[in-house]
Amino acid sequence: MPSSAPADSGSSASSLEAAAFRSLEPEGALGKFGIWEARGSRACKKNPGELDSALQFRAIIVPVKVQIFGQIYSIRGELEEKYVQRLAKFVDEKMHAIAESTGIVDTQKLAVLAALAIADELHSLKTEVTDEEHMLREQAERCLTLVERALKQTA
Fold this sequence. Notes:
By secondary structure, this protein is α+β, with helices and mostly antiparallel strands. It is 49% helix and 14% strand. It has one domain. It has three helices and six strands, in the order βαβββββαα. The strands form three sheets. It has a two-stranded antiparallel sheet with strand order 1-2.
């Protein structure tokens, strides 16, 4: 079973770490921060080529320190430091917005709600893109049909 990565600067390990920053070895963590996937009782490292993202990978030799909901985390991974900082800021803002609108103070609950809200946004965007791709294919097929008709008439 993976162990939690320690929070930085002597702060106690938070529940958020368990959900978002679990690490199987010093340089790896979940997501694009090492790309680990649990399979039964073992964990296997996935190939970065399996990712469906066009993000450019660069090794982070020095851990990136980020602050999310008052906790400082030291993150290692293969993404650029500025991008990791932007991701952390996005998560932090999402957690604060949920805390303000719900009055929830439990960090773990906020982390789960933030994860669900972010997953919802991602799913909605993917659905939107799929719908737009379908519409563009239909329009392309109609254009092709019109061009084929026009070519037959001029022949």
